[in-house]
Design a protein that fits this description.
By secondary structure, the protein is an all-alpha fold. It has 6 helices and 2 strands, in the order ααααββαα. The protein has a two-stranded antiparallel ribbon with strand order 1-2.
């Protein structure tokens, strides 16, 4: 019997997918834990960073900015544990789309702001240039991780797997 390259690749995917999933899950968890952790000690600065996008009224922006670190930390913990992985990935994807749209909007309107993704953010000092393209590309990478987990949420060493009794390697129809 002759084994062709496509059949070898097809045989590797079910074995590789759970480990790619755990890398995506833990990587995205680290992102949310770092992002939320960097903002949690100064919620007012997080509110100012949201307001710098000039999309929401000041009072709404400060509430959103104050709540955002807690949402990010919750997503990070859920993904770290592998609990409600598909839900956490879906919320992550939605949040990342909002972030990408916000950065693109600020860029298109000529605003000079720091995105506030991993810190206080807000208006840049005169002479500082924003880095919108790298921020958008970075968030697109995170969005790809969330998308992977939306499609294949079951990973090894997860509470989801423990609760359902599922093996870490499952059928493609998950």
């Amino acid at each position: 019997m002759t084994v062709t390259a496509p059949s070898i690749r097809a045989a590797r995917w079910p074995a590789l997918r759970p480990w790619l999933g755990i890398a995506a899950r833990l990587g995205l968890a680290a992102v949310w834990l770092l992002a939320g952790g960097s903002k949690i000690d100064d919620l007012a600065a997080s509110g100012r960073a949201v307001h710098a996008y000039q999309v929401l009224p000041y009072d709404v922006a400060t509430v959103v900015g104050a709540a955002l670190p807690f949402v990010e930390l919750a997503l990070g913990v859920l993904l770290l544990l592998g609990l409600a992985t598909r839900l956490a990935a879906g919320v992550s994807a939605a949040l990342l789309v909002v972030f990408i749209a916000g950065i693109a909007s600020a860029w298109s309107r000529g605003l000079a702001i720091d995105c506030g993704c991993f810190g206080s953010g807000g208006q840049l000092a005169p002479g500082q240039a924003p880095s919108y393209l790298p921020e958008i590309l970075r968030d697109l990478g995170f969005l790809a991780l969330a998308g992977f987990l939306l499609i294949w949420p079951r990973t090894p060493v997860s509470v989801d797997g423990w609760l359902t009794g599922d093996a870490p390697v499952e059928d493609e129809d998950e």
